[in-house]
User: What shape does this take?
Amino acid sequence: MELGLKGMKAAVTGGSRGIGKAIAMHLAQEGCDVSICARGEEGIAATRAEIEAEGVRSFGTALQGRDGDAVRGWMRETCDVFGGLDLLVCSLSGGGGTNEEGYWRRSFEIDVMSATRAVDEAYPHLKKSGKGSILVISSMAAAETFVSPMAYNAMKASLVTWSKQLAEQYAPKGIRVNCLEPGPTMFPGSNWEMIKVARSRTYAGVLRQQPTRRMGEVDEIAKSAVFLASPAASWVTGATLRVDGGYTKGVQF
Amino acid sequence: MTIQRVKPGDFTKTPVDKTEDPDFGTEMIPKERYTSRDFMQKEWDRLWTKVWNWGCASQDIEEPGDYIVTSLGKEEILLTRQPDGTAKGFYNVCQHRGNRLMMGQGNATTFKCNYHHWEYKLTGEFENIPDIETFPQGAPPCGGLTEVRVEEWNGFVFFCLDPDGESFDDFIHPLKEHLGPYHFDRMVKVTDWTVEWECNWKTSVDAFNESYHVQGIHPELLYFIEDKHLQIDTYEKHNRYLIPFATISHRVNETTEIPHLIKHAMKEAGMDPADFDGRISEIRPALQKWKREHGAEQGLDYSDLNDEQLTDDYHYMIFPNITMNTHADDLMLFRQRPHETDPDKMYFDVQMFKLLKKDEEKPRRKPKNERFKHGERSMGLVIDQDAANLPGVQRGMHSEAYEGLWLGDQELRIRHFHKVLMDYVGED
Assistant: This one.
């Protein structure tokens, strides 16, 4: 099956590590120019080098996810440098936390607002593309009670609702919008890698609920993500795809 | 990840210079030091009865007449506050029939033996001997209780059973300069536990003299401390290592989420981890800066401490048996006491102290000394992990297949400890 990504221009927020990076790399391997933004300069430089090694162009800016001007600036510059945009993947996250007020602010400003700001700036370019596509990365934690009440889960849920509404509004403009809910995913430097050691009981509790007794790998998430974002999924919009290895127990009719 | 350290020229009162590593060779430490009754007796004769011993916290005997009984091997020592404010110590034994004089801790105007009510003044002299006329030989010529030398420093009371031994100042050198800036006398005791452990006292001392075992039995700490790249310093008798806290070990990958122990340290200082947008590796210096800037307004005086003392663990061993995890806001002190008769047993004392804020009132009740056996209650994850491990180490010491301790560079403090130990004991 041909994904139809060759020659497309893509941007991934938070594309320097974990799931975001895996998505960025798969897009590059499929022939997309890829732009990323993330907190660490070194991570951006290293990822850009890997992207360019695939024979495509790269762009990247180090920024704080809650810095609205910076996110908007990166999105505009990406479109300038690439001369347009076909694909936007909103993957940036401030990570989990607790139920304290600071974390509500943090999840809202980083997870939610970085996505809405990037979409806002990308919209005119995606419209021009004709094959424009937005993929919002939410979380399985939005769909089912998970660990404890906290801002992260609720903010990720808000992304699901928002992306569905965007899908309806943008469909006539030729832009598809989909959402992906990854389950617990393990990679070097992942929060789960830390939790496995630092809070081994929490980790064991989560793993027990995973039917395969293992966590997902970033490639397993990224391949689904890249398909959804690609022209191969041309009739898929307003969908939320859960990629969790069977973690969640609810049945979606 | 490079750990930022205090540099020459930065403010510090506690010396931070690295001492030159002594060359103690690579020989095996014989296991018999941990198992032999003969060696245990030599330790009693040549170490415990000669060395300065940590006795209690000054706050344990705050008011005149306050007393506390502490034990060391087969001896019990009565430490008490005098009306003139000084501390005195006595063997806790009645000169009449040898009965134990006092128990636990409390306040007294005289020390009265339960058996025949022989009574002693706070100064140790006889106060009253009932029916003294029935002793044709009169009262014992010693005049009262047998005194031991006592010295008080930085909130602690030390005693020495050797009337002619070295001075406390010579013994403790150079730690007065090192530990003075922490002002332990401004801290209040919040925990006082005594646990009987099934291992030699040195098995326990060793466990706290190296951080090599962190990646073994304390993996959680890899997300709170740097466990390998430490500064180890050895002095004449005592030693230390400086462990960076509020950071992650070079052994693990940096995450985006702040590990929970680091979050806890930030929150304790009033810094909201949700508002911190830097990397994990940037937290330690940021937390130091935060505490430096906000300490005074929180009523916490850190003015005598250098920047890394605000986050790190300056981990001292006062020879022979005191382990101190010193922090800006608290002190976790372990005392490892030999058993009365059995080299395979020991008493592990945990005393935790917390820095009081300016004008903060002391808790009305002092914590009571709680005594229990290993496994009867939790002492927190990390000490529990050590406690669970030690009986197995002691058991292995008795194996035909085990000859002695095979030590690496990360265990230099253990070699240093054994060097000083053998300076006292003289021979295996």
